[in-house]
Amino acid sequence: MRTRSRITEPCGRDLLFERSGLGFVEVDKLIGLVYSGTQETVPWTRVLERMRELLDANYVALILRVPNSEQPLQVVFAGEAQPERAAVFSTSLTTIDPFFNLPRDRMVMLEELVDDEDWLQGSYYREFHAPLNIRYYIGADIGMGPEPSCRLRVSRPPSAARFGERELAICSLLLPHLVIAVQLRAGLDIAAVESHFYAGMLDRLSVGVVFLDKEKRILKANRAASAILEQRDGLSIVNGGLSAAFPAENHELRSLIERAVSAGGQSQPGVVSGMSVSRSSGRSNLGVAVRAAPLTEWSEPSSRPAALVILRDSEAHVLASHDELKQLYRLTTAEANLAVQLMAGCTVEEAAQRLNVTRNTARCQIRAVFAKTGVTRQTELLRVLLSGVAPLA
C-alpha cells in the first residue's frame, strides 16, 4: 500500500471542547465513566459503549495488552453483534488493526496514513475488514514509556460518513484521562494479586486475620478466621464485632481492640498486645494478637481497616502441597502422602491407618523420607517440612 505521512497536529483543550459539540455536563459524565470504569468487572465497558453512541461507530475497542508468546490479547470491546463479532475482533486484532507506530497520545484517521483507493482495493481490507463491516478507522496509541499503555480503536461501516473533527475532538478530550485510568487500574490489579497471594498463604498456614473498622466492626475475615469464628468456640461474631465467650476475656479483648484502633488513628503501627482465649469445649486455647492498622496520610478513616486481629488455633493443621513436597524432596507419591499426614499431627501408626497401609510399609516410607530430607528423627523432619516452602505452595 502507498502510505501518507500527514498527521493531524494536536490542538488546545478549549478548541477540542468547542469542536466536540458536547456540553460541559456530557463531557463531565464521560470523564466520570472513564475513572469509574477502573472498578468495573470488565473495565471501561460503559464508557466505550457511550463513546460508540456519541461517535456513531459500529466498534470501539480499548486494547490493554497485545498478544505475545506468553500472554493472550486483552481487549475491552463495545460494538455490534456481540459476542460473536467481539470474539472475531479480539482473536484477529493483530491481523485487522491497520495502525502501526502511531504518534503517541494523538487521534489519527486511517486516511491520513493510507491512500483511500489502495485501502479499498487491497486484500488487507477485503479479507479482514469488509467481513466485519469496517470501512473507516480512527485510533490512538496512549501512554508513556517505550510501549503504549493501551490502544484506542474506533470504526464505522461503509454506510456511514467519514470521521471528522468532532469525533477526533471527543476522543482527544478523553485520551489523557484514559492514560491515568489505565495506570490506576494496573495499580488496583497489582494490589489485588498481592492480596490474593498473601491471603492464600495465611490460609495455608491456618492463620486467621480479621479486619476491623474504627467502630470495631468486622470489615473482612480470611478463610482461616471464618472457620474459627463459625465454630463459636471461644470466639464468635456478636453485633458485627468479635466477642470472647468468657466475660473477663471478652473485656480484655475489647480493651486490646480499642487500644489498637486508637493507636492506628495516631499512625502508630505495631502489635498492641496479645492474649489467650479459652474455649468452651475444653480444647486448647486460641491465640490472639491485635495490631493497629496505621492511618496513612490521605486515607479515609470511615472506609479503611483500623485494626487487625490475628487468630491462631494450635490444633489447626498446616496445609501442604503433595506436588510441592514431591518436587522439593524428590518424594514418591506414597512418601508425600505420609509426609502430609505427619505434618497434620499424626503419628506414623495413625498415618498408616489413614493411608490404609501396614505399619511396616509406613516405617519403610518414613526412612526413605528421612534419607531424602537429610534428617534422622521425626522431630527434625517436621521442623524441615513445616519451616520450608511446602506449606506456602
UniProtKB/TrEMBL annotation:
Name the record gives this protein: HTH luxR-type domain-containing protein
Annotated ranges, domain HTH luxR-type: 328-385
GO biological process: regulation of DNA-templated transcription
InterPro entries cross-referenced by the UniProt entry: Sig_transdc_resp-reg_C-effctor (IPR016032), Tscrpt_reg_LuxR_C (IPR000792), WH-like_DNA-bd_sf (IPR036388)
Membrane-crossing residue ranges in chain numbering: none
One of the record's GO molecular function terms: DNA binding
Organism name: Thauera terpenica 58Eu
